[in-house]
Structure to design on (412 residues):
């Protein structure tokens, strides 16, 4: 997609501490220039995605109700690259981790955890498996699939860099079985790498969830409160890995995002490379939906976030844009629970969503703890499978967040 006339760059596009602007209104900036950073441990710098002039420092309302500072940049249309942009010199693991941080990379599967921290576990000597997560995170989305098909050499370069500088014994590229072209291509491209294998996984949702893919690849269960490194694994999204390869080759930080634009109002669903900070409305103008959307969701249909404003910008975590009609977005009228147990069978975390729903609406915190409501990943399987169309996912995620807000957690 062509660069927009104006971008809004959020200072919080990652888990952890938000960045503070390091430029001011009136400053001229160029592509790849650092415009926000933080000295906090869990954070990642943000960069200008266009060349132009900083016209405002504003406040942006984020999904979930939080706010963050954001910089508005009026593009000069030239897309000039900043003089600081050059391939990094990497001669050690420390150099590699500094380079990954400098790239602004975060988990591009949606979570947004800073990649340089994920690649620097305290127990590195105990890590025996690097999982490249190429299982598309949600239905409808195919951006990661296109990344493998269009940029396979960047994926391989990123894998080689991680394996070399972290000295890891094996890597598994985990791809769902409904992508035979990507499986074949990745096998061809990694045939010369003895430590790298490609594993086809069942095409079931939510295969791309971190806990699920770790179990599918290794058979290891991630305990409550544990990180993947605690079971000897590092997991990175395939596009994140490709961005590592690109940054080491070009020095260009994360300033664009590939996203799937689809939905029942799209005559031509497509994958686009979009400048970070582009307003959603400009993406819609470019793609030309058949009618005025009734609902716009960033992300996928199961865990995506319904947007309130078409001026909201594309961020690093966005991997999809669903454009839906009134018919497709209408919520069904819920009916009484028939005690069929389908929500329990469908839950990948082994929870009881129907009981969590009732305990939440009764404000029974002790019962929510007993039911392990804090383990809900918000995947949406329970609401999808429920024949009574009850809002089980909403109740479970609200229960999880309530326990977190109150500082309550179950031991063991």
């Amino acid at each position: 997609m062509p660069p927009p006339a104006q971008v809004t760059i959020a200072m919080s596009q990652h888990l952890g501490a938000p960045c503070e602007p390091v430029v001011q209104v009136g400053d001229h900036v160029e592509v790849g220039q650092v415009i926000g950073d933080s000295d906090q441990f869990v954070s990642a710098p943000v960069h200008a995605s266009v060349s132009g002039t900083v016209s405002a420092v504003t406040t942006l309302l984020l999904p979930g109700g939080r706010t963050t500072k954001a910089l508005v940049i009026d593009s000069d249309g030239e897309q000039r690259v900043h003089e600081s942009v050059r391939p990094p010199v990497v001669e050690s693991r420390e150099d590699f981790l500094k380079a990954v941080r400098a790239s602004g990379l975060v988990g591009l599967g949606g979570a947004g955890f800073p990649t340089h921290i994920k690649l620097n576990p305290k127990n590195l000597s105990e890590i025996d498996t690097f999982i490249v997560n190429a299982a598309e995170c949600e239905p409808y989305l195919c951006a990661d699939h296109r990344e493998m098909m269009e940029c396979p050499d960047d994926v391989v370069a990123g894998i080689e860099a991680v394996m070399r500088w972290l000295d890891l014994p094996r890597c598994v590229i985990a791809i769902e079985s409904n992508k035979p072209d990507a499986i074949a291509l990745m096998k061809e491209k990694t045939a010369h790498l003895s430590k790298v294998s490609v594993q086809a996984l069942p095409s079931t949702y939510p295969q791309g969830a971190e806990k699920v893919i770790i179990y599918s690849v290794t058979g290891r269960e991630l305990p409550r409160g544990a990180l993947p490194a605690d079971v000897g694994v590092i997991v990175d999204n395939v596009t994140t890995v490709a961005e590592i390869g690109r940054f080491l080759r070009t020095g260009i930080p994360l300033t664009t995002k590939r996203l799937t634009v689809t939905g029942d109002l799209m005559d031509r669903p497509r994958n686009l490379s979009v400048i970070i900070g582009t307003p959603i409305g400009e993406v819609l103008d470019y793609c030309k939906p058949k009618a005025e959307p009734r609902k716009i969701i960033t992300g996928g249909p199961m865990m995506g976030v319904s947007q309130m404003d078409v001026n909201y910008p594309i961020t690093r975590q966005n991997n999809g844009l669903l454009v839906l009609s009134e018919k497709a977005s209408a919520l069904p009228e819920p009916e009484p629970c028939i005690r069929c147990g389908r929500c329990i069978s469908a839950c990948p975390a082994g929870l009881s969503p129907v009981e969590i729903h009732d305990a939440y609406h009764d404000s029974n915190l002790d019962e929510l703890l007993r039911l392990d409501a804090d383990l809900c990943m918000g995947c949406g399987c329970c609401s999808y499978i429920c024949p009574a169309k009850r809002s089980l996912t909403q109740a479970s995620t609200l229960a999880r967040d309530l326990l977190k807000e109150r500082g309550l957690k179950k031991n063991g």
